[in-house]
Amino acid sequence: MAELNKNEKAARRVSHFPEHGPVDESGREVLVSLKNVDITFGKGDNAVKAVQNASFDIYKGETFSLVGESGSGKTTIGRAVIRVNPLAKGEIDYKGVCISGKIPHSLDREVIRNIQMVFQDPAASLNERATVDYIISEGLYNFKLFENEADRVAKVEKIIEEVGLLPEHLTRYPHEFSGGQRQRIGIARAMVMEPELVVADEPISALDVSIRAQVLNLMKKFQQEKGLTYLFIAHDLSVVRFISDRIGVIYKGHIVEIASSEELFDFPLHPYTHSLISAIPIPDPKLEKNKVLYTYDPSMHDYSEDKPELVCIGHDHWVYGNKAEIERYKAIRETGEPVKSITIGKSEHHAVEVEKDAAEEQFLKAPVHDTGSLWYTALAFILAFFVLTAPIPFIGAYLFRRFNYMRNGKACMKGAIAGLIGIGIVLALFAIFIVLAVI
Q: Contact, 233 vs 78, CB < 8 A?
């Protein structure tokens, strides 16, 4: 507490944030730093520790994703960064200045201006009684970020067009829009403030699958154009894998693993990370049906004497564990062999690795144009119907299968067989007609 009080006193002497944050050993600018953060709700016997000893850095310009199951503390940390949730212990630094606890009013306003949030529920986060124009302009009014009315209107119209809506939408109310459009309005409200950090609290979980990619692409576009930094909160690892620079995994308030996106998926060392990756759906019904889920059991750890810590095992990879576990994780990582998290089982007692499964490999390697179109069946039928061209569809089916166009080959074979059956029926009818004519 003495150290925290010292930092609070130092923060009081700072009236504005520096232009740049501190630089770490690798030369990256640290925008936000969480140091041994505890967040507690309630008092006395009813107190609940939602977050315990959480520590990580967010570098300028990156997308840092925080993933975990519901109730793990993801949103709690995000709300603490924007100074909504108070800390029970530890501190949160922004550009090297402590922003947790009591800070000067000028710093508090800069935090609000520089750190914006995109909420999970686009319906609940917008004022239903206000027009879109006022919703987006509210921050501009509060911080006087426009020279005159014409300047404000220009800024609002520009940002509403950048998120894919039209200026005429500004006079409407939130209930007149779909979920995806509401989320775009929420993004516009945050981006019009020109923030440096955006806390995105599961911004796509309430949206249809077809809309999710559009919202993610929109956020990525803003990051590239404006140099934004994202704290992206999610529970779906299959989504964050392709948008994140680094990923932090949280379980019941504890940060259990932090690594770059590819590093985490190639080497998921903590068992809880292993279980999250094993839950990612496989795009094949047969494989998904036989997939063996890995269930994380916290009782597998013995922390009675040897207490766990979040330790860097190299490769900028941090894992939570005691000394024995950390040594085992290091040994696994130093082998350089990717850890395989998903298994396909033929029975409860028999399982094979997915990456070695021939059926999955065939599915993943299937060419894009292997559609098995009816046109192949029709063409094969026509060619097989005539004696001179009958071998062609069979040769085509063989070549298709030879180059892994399995569906196209099957379609050709069906058409060829149907063509032979058709010519056989015609010949049989012709023979019967001749016999009847002779008689």
A: yes
Q: For the chain, give the longest Cα–Cα distance.
A: 118
Check whether residue 62 and residue 211 sit in a common domain.
yes
pLDDT tens by residue, 173-224: 999 999 889 999 999 999 999 999 999 998 888 788 888 888 889 999 999 9
Q: Looking at residue 61, which CATH number applies to its domain?
A: 3.40.50.300
Domain that holds residue 93: 2-261
Residue 372 Ramachandran class (φ > 0 left, ψ -120 to 50 alpha, else beta): left
Cα separation, 123 vs 433, whole angstroms: 75
pTM for the structure as a whole: 0.74
Give yes or no: residues 153 and 245 share one domain: yes
Please indicate, yes or no, if residue 367 is contained in any of the structural domains: no
Residues 149-165: tens digit of each pLDDT: 999 999 999 999 999 99
Do 81 and 192 lie in one domain? The reply is: yes
In a domain, 181, yes or no: yes
Structural domain count of the chain: 3
